[in-house]
């Protein structure tokens, strides 16, 4: 089902490329757009994860510089029955996280410094378990390729002015093509939001709660992240809005409306579902994954990943 969804998404994106190319440059423009789309599809399959990690300047971590986070991911991966993904940290005061990669064997998870500083170890475990659920459900291929293709579609708006004004292309729809491209460009992120079913977030929440062993950990984390996203800007996300759907909470704004064009379901609805799910778990926390996922508190080992914004704040996460 996920492979079919990915194929349909790529077909839609390719058709969009070709349609705008036809309007701007006639048949020649359509063929050029087809070649570009084919190249982008192939490139995205192999490299979109690297591009997303690079866009956020994420740095890899290991047992040497982030032992608690690394051990947490090893335990959670074992709980999920997944290979250990690569673990990254990116410098942002906004607490958030995302997963990427074309399959579980080539996956990566990235957490912000703000997430590690502001959330408890249990909440971090809930968030990272949610990201592992996306990997297990093979959502990451669709998410990363969509982000790359949406960014490419947005560039058509910039090129439209150059190609649309060419009077030698004998295309009476050239001007219309320019207008269409100008509309498509700012709405590219919205098209991505509609193309990707937001029900995947509910599925990842449910599976993530099972992986970490306690739905309330993730519920608490979602509340904190959503509140922080309203007041703490993520500058890298603002420059790459087509990647917003990859995060556990929309990094662009504190969107609270559960409407068609939201990148994520309503946070309150997600929390409510997790609380319902918690009633099926042992109140005393006797689920195996519950204890296994909790990290030990050792020395502070937050890696330096950039400007170090927010490093002077009290550390409330695993590195207290």
Automatic annotation (TrEMBL):
Keyword Coiled coil listed: no
Obligatory cofactor(s): Zn(2+)
Entries under Gene3D superfamilies matching the protein: Metalloproteases ('zincins'), catalytic domain
Cofactor notes: Binds 1 zinc ion per subunit.
Residues annotated as transmembrane: 7-24, 30-47, 141-163, 175-196
Domain Peptidase M48: 66-277
Binding site for Zn(2+): 130, 134, 201
Disordered: annotated span: 281-320
Active site (UniProt): 131
Compartments where located: Cell membrane
GO biological process: proteolysis
Gene Ontology MF term list: metalloendopeptidase activity; zinc ion binding
InterPro entries: HtpX_protease, Pept_M48_protease_HtpX, Peptidase_M48
EC number: 3.4.24.-
Main localization, broad class: membrane
Principal EC category: hydrolase
UniProt membrane topology term: Multi-pass membrane protein
GO cellular component, one term: plasma membrane
Stored CDD domains: M48B_HtpX_like
Keywords: Cell membrane, Hydrolase, Membrane, Metal-binding, Metalloprotease, Protease, Transmembrane, Transmembrane helix, Zinc
Comp. bias intervals (Low complexity): 291-301
Similarity remark: Belongs to the peptidase M48B family.
PANTHER family: PROTEASE HTPX (PTHR43221:SF1)
Protein name: Protease HtpX homolog
């Amino acid at each position: 089902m996920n492979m079919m969804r990915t194929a349909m998404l790529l077909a839609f994106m390719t058709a969009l490329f070709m349609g705008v190319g036809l309007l701007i440059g006639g048949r020649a423009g359509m063929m050029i757009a087809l070649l570009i789309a084919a190249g982008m599809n192939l490139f995205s399959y192999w490299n979109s994860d690297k591009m997303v990690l690079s866009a956020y300047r994420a740095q890899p971590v290991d047992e040497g510089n982030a032992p608690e986070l690394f051990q947490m991911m090893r335990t959670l991966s074992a709980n999920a029955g997944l290979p250990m993904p690569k673990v990254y940290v990116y410098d942002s005061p906004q607490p958030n996280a995302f997963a990427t990669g074309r399959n579980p064997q080539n996956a990566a998870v990235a957490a912000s410094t703000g997430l590690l500083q502001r959330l408890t170890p249990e909440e971090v475990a809930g968030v990272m378990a949610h990201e592992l659920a996306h990997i297990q459900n093979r959502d990451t291929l669709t998410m990363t390729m969509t982000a790359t293709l949406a960014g490419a579609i947005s560039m058509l708006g910039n090129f439209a002015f150059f190609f649309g004004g060419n009077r030698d292309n004998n295309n009476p729809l050239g001007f219309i093509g320019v207008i269409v491209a100008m509309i498509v460009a700012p709405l590219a992120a919205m098209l991505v939001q509609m193309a990707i079913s937001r029900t995947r977030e509910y599925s990842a929440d449910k599976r993530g709660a099972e992986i970490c062993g306690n739905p309330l950990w993730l519920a608490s984390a979602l509340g904190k992240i959503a509140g922080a996203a309203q007041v703490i800007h993520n500058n890298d996300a603002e420059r790459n809005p087509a990647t917003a759907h990859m995060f556990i909470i929309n990094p662009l704004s504190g969107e609270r409306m559960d409407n068609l064009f939201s990148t994520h379901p309503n946070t309150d609805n997600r929390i409510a579902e997790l609380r319902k799910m918690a009633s099926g778990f042992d109140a005393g926390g006797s689920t195996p994954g519950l204890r296994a996922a909790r990290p030990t508190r050792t020395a502070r080992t937050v890696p330096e990943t950039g400007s170090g914004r927010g490093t002077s704040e009290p550390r409330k996460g695993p590195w207290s």
